[in-house]
Write a structure and sequence with these properties.
Its main location: endoplasmic reticulum. The chain is mainly alpha-helical. The protein has helices at about 1-30, 35-40, 50-75, 85, 90-95, 105-110, 115-135, 140-175, 180-190, 190-195, 205-215, 240-255, 260-270, 285-315, 320-330, 345-355, 355-370, 375-380, 385-405, 420-435, 450-470, 475-490, 525, 550, 555-560, 575-580, 580-585, 610-615, and strands at about 435, 445-450, 510-515, 535, 565, 570, 600-605, 630-635, 650-655. It is about 55% helix and about 5% strand.
C-alpha cells in the first residue's frame, strides 16, 4: 500500500514541478521584454499550463466553497428582512402544496410584480423533498424540520458558485500566474456581508450569482485594443460561452429588472469605447453576431419566463412591466421607505465591503475615475486587462449613481456589485498586506506585512459575521419554531401537508402576531396548514394616486395599531377595541375561540403594558376572561433601529383554551 501511494504521488509532484518551472520561464521572459509580452499576450485569457493541475485546482476551490457555504447556511439563525421569505418561500410553498396550504401571498404576488422563476426553483425542491420523504414515511415533525432548512441549503450552492465565479473572473483578468485572484478569493470568503446574506433566499442573492457567472462567460475580448491584438483569433468565436453569459444575464434581469443597468453599462462602454484605451476591434459582422445572440437568448429566456408566469398566475402577464409600473410610475416603493441620495455612498457600499472599504474605493478610483494615461510599465497590466477592469469599475459607478436617483433604496439592491468590488480591490489589498516575492515565479511565496492590521480586520469580520448570523434578531425564527413544535404536541393528528386537515375545534386561532408586519417567517416555518395564525398587515395604498393627500395620510393595519392615541395616551388600545375585537367589547361576553380569540398572542415585550391595560378590570377587554401568562420569550439582539421591535419577543397564553404545560 505504501509503495503504491508513493508511486501515485510521484507523477503528480513531477507534473507540479514542471508547471512551476514553466511559470518561472514565462515570468523571466516577460520581465526581460515587458512591452513585447504585453502586446503579444492578450489577457484575460485562461491558458492552463497543464490541464490536470488546473482542473484539480478548480475542483478543490469549488469543493472548499461548497463546504464553507453549507456550514454558513446552517449557522445563519437570525432574521434580516421579510423579503427573504415573502418574495421567495411563501409563493414557493404555494406552488408545492397548493392554495389550501396557508401560504401568505403578499400584494406583490397578487399584482404580478414578481417573476415566478425564483419561487418555482424552491417550489420544485419543496415538492421533490416532500414526495421523497412521503415515500420513505419520514416522521411528520422531522419532515417539517427538513423542509424548513432545505431552502437555505439549496441557496448555499448558489452562494458557493457566486464565490467561485468571483475567483474565476479574477483569474481570467489578472492571469492564472498571479496571486491577485487569491486576494479576491479570500475577501469573498471572509466578508461579513457574504456570510450574513449569501445563503439567504433573497432574489438579490441569486441575482448576484447569476451576474458574476454571466460576467465570467462574457467575451471580454470585445474591449481589447485592435492595434495590439496580433493573435488573429476571430471575435465571438466561442458562442457557447457567449450564450451562457447572455442566458444567465437575461434570467438576472427578469428576476430583478434593475440588473439591466449593469449590462447597459457594459454594452455602452463596449460600443462607444468611452474611457477605454485603443481603437475598437468591433466590425459589422461581430456587431451583427452579438446583437443576434442577445435577441435569441433574450427571447428564449423570456419565453420560458412568460410560460412559467402563465402557469403560476393562471393568465398571461409580464411581471417586469408591472414591477416598473408600480415602483416608478405609481411611486409605491416609497411607501416602504425613502432614503437620501447619498445612501449607497454613506451606507450601502460601506455595509457591503465593511473592513475592505478603503481598498474597494481605491480600486474604483484607480480603474474607474483615474484619468491618467494607460501605461503598461507602471500598472503592470496590458490593455485588455486595463479595459476590462475599467469597464467593471465604470459600470459599478454608473449603476450606483443611477440607483441613487430612486427614492427607495436598500443595500441588497447593489449586492450584485459586491463581486466587482472584490475584484477591483484585490490588487490593492494584496499589495498592502504582502511584500513582493523574491522568487522568479509570480506565484512564488510572498511575505506578510501589516500583520497586526490584518489580524484586526479578520477579527472584526469574524465578530461581525458571528454576531449578525447568530445573535442579531434570532427571536423571529425561534418563535415560529416554538409555535410549530407546540402545535405538534397539542395536535399530533393534524400534521398533514397534503390538505388543510381541520382540528377537533376547527375555529381555533393558534397564534395572533401583534408585531410590525412581516416580522417573522410564515408558512415556510409554521409548515402545517391546520396551524391557523393571523398577523398585522401592511398593504400599500394601491387605490390612491401618487402625491395625493389620501396617500400621504394612509395608515396600514400595523401603523394603525402602533399609532399614538391622544385619548388613552398610548398606542394599541383603540385598535384592539375598534378593529381587533369590537364584537366582544360591545357584547360584554366571555371570549371564546370562535370569536377570534387566539390561544397565543405574539409580540415584542414593549406591548405587554398595552395588553395588560386592555384586559385589566379597568380596560375595554375586562370581560373577555383573558389572563395573560408568558409561556415563551426570546432574546432579540443588543439593539434594533425600529423601536417597535426592541426588547425580547414574547408569547403570551391568553388562557382562553385550557392547556397542560409540560
Amino acid at each position: 500500500m505504501a509503495s503504491n501511494s508513493s508511486a501515485d504521488a510521484t507523477p503528480h509532484a513531477q507534473l507540479k514541478a514542471e508547471a512551476q518551472a514553466e511559470l518561472r520561464k514565462a515570468a523571466l521572459s516577460k520581465k526581460s521584454n515587458p512591452s513585447e509580452a504585453s502586446e503579444a499576450t492578450p489577457a484575460p485569457q485562461h491558458r492552463p499550463l497543464y490541464v490536470e493541475v488546473d482542473s484539480a485546482q478548480v475542483k478543490d476551490v469549488l469543493a472548499v466553497l461548497l463546504v464553507l457555504r453549507f456550514i454558513n447556511a446552517l449557522c445563519v439563525r437570525t432574521f434580516f428582512q421579510p423579503d427573504e421569505y415573502f418574495q421567495a418561500l411563501e409563493p414557493a410553498w404555494n406552488i408545492a402544496f397548493g392554495p389550501q396550504s396557508g401560504a401568505w401571498l403578499t400584494w406583490e404576488w397578487q399584482q404580478q410584480l414578481r417573476s415566478s422563476l425564483h419561487p418555482a426553483l424552491f417550489g420544485l425542491v419543496y415538492k421533490a423533498a416532500h414526495t421523497l420523504m412521503s415515500g420513505l414515511e419520514v416522521f411528520e415533525p422531522a419532515r417539517a424540520r427538513i423542509l424548513v432548512m432545505l431552502p437555505s441549503l439549496v441557496q448555499s450552492v448558489f452562494a458557493a458558485l457566486g464565490d467561485f465565479y468571483t475567483w474565476a473572473l479574477a483569474t481570467e483578468i489578472y492571469g492564472v500566474e498571479s496571486n491577485v485572484p487569491w486576494a479576491a478569493f479570500w475577501m469573498t470568503m471572509v466578508n461579513p456581508w457574504q456570510w450574513y446574506c449569501s445563503t439567504r433566499t433573497f432574489s438579490n442573492s441569486l441575482e448576484t450569482t447569476l451576474t458574476i457567472a454571466a460576467l465570467y462567460y462574457w467575451p471580454w475580448e470585445l474591449v481589447k485594443d485592435a492595434k495590439t491584438s496580433k493573435d488573429g483569433s476571430p471575435l465571438l468565436s466561442d458562442l457557447k460561452s457567449l450564450r451562457a453569459s447572455l442566458i444567465l444575464a437575461a434570467v438576472a434581469v427578469l428576476l430583478r429588472p434593475t440588473n439591466m443597468l449593469i449590462w447597459l453599462g457594459i454594452l455602452i462602454l463596449t460600443f462607444t469605447r468611452f474611457t477605454l484605451d485603443g481603437p475598437s476591434p468591433l466590425q459589422a459582422a461581430t456587431v451583427f453576431k452579438l446583437v443576434r445572440e442577445i435577441v435569441l437568448c433574450g427571447l428564449t429566456v423570456l419565453a420560458i419566463s412568460v410560460a412559467s408566469d402563465r402557469l403560476y398566475f393562471g393568465f398571461w402577464t409580464f411581471p417586469p412591466y408591472k414591477f416598473l409600473y408600480f415602483n416608478i410610475s405609481q411611486s409605491l416603493a416609497v411607501f416602504y421607505g425613502k432614503m437620501p441620495w447619498h445612501y449607497y455612498l454613506s451606507q450601502g457600499i460601506p455595509l457591503l465591503t465593511t473592513t475592505f472599504l478603503p481598498f474597494a474605493l481605491v480600486g474604483l478610483y484607480k480603474f474607474g475615475l483615474s484619468l491618467s494615461p494607460y501605461s503598461p510599465s507602471q500598472s503592470g497590466l496590458d490593455i485588455l486587462q486595463s479595459n476590462t477592469l475599467r469597464t467593471l469599475a465604470v459600470t459599478a459607478i454608473t449603476t450606483v449613481a443611477t440607483l441613487s436617483v430612486i427614492s427607495h433604496k436598500e443595500v441588497r439592491f447593489i449586492y450584485p456589485l459586491l463581486p466587482l468590488f472584490h475584484i477591483l480591490a484585490a490588487p490593492y489589498i494584496l499589495g498592502f498586506f504582502t511584500t513582493p516575492s523574491t522568487s522568479p515565479s509570480p506565484t512564488g511565496p510572498v511575505g506578510l506585512r501589516h500583520k497586526l492590521f490584518l489580524a484586526n480586520i479578520l477579527s472584526i469580520n469574524l465578530l461581525l459575521a458571528g454576531y449578525l448570523s447568530l445573535f442579531h434578531q434570532p427571536a423571529p425564527l425561534s418563535v415560529v419554531n416554538f409555535l410549530r413544535t407546540d402545535f405538534e404536541r397539542l395536535h399530533p393528528d393534524s400534521l398533514s401537508l397534503n390538505s388543510s386537515v381541520p382540528l377537533s375545534n376547527d375555529t381555533e386561532l393558534f397564534a395572533l402576531f401583534l408585531t410590525p408586519c412581516h416580522s417573522t417567517p410564515w408558512r415556510s416555518h409554521l409548515v402545517y396548514p391546520a396551524l391557523r395564525a393571523r398577523a398585522l398587515t401592511c398593504e400599500p395604498p394601491l387605490h390612491t394616486a401618487p402625491d395625493s393627500r389620501e396617500r400621504a395620510t394612509y395608515l396600514d393595519e400595523a401603523d394603525r395599531f402602533y399609532a399614538h392615541d391622544e385619548e388613552s395616551g398610548t398606542y394599541g388600545l383603540a385598535f384592539l377595541r375598534d378593529e381587533m375585537w369590537p364584537s366582544l367589547v360591545q357584547s360584554e361576553k366571555m371570549a371564546r375561540p370562535e370569536d377570534g380569540m387566539p390561544r397565543y398572542i405574539v409580540g415584542f415585550e414593549g406591548i405587554e403594558d398595552v395588553l395588560l391595560r386592555f384586559f385589566s378590570m379597568n380596560g375595554d377587554g375586562w370581560n373577555m376572561g383573558v389572563r395573560l401568562v408568558r409561556v415563551w420569550e426570546g432574546w432579540n439582539g443588543l439593539f434594533n433601529e425600529d423601536w417597535r421591535r426592541r426588547g425580547k419577543l414574547v408569547v403570551w397564553d391568553t388562557g382562553v383554551l385550557d392547556r397542560d404545560y409540560l
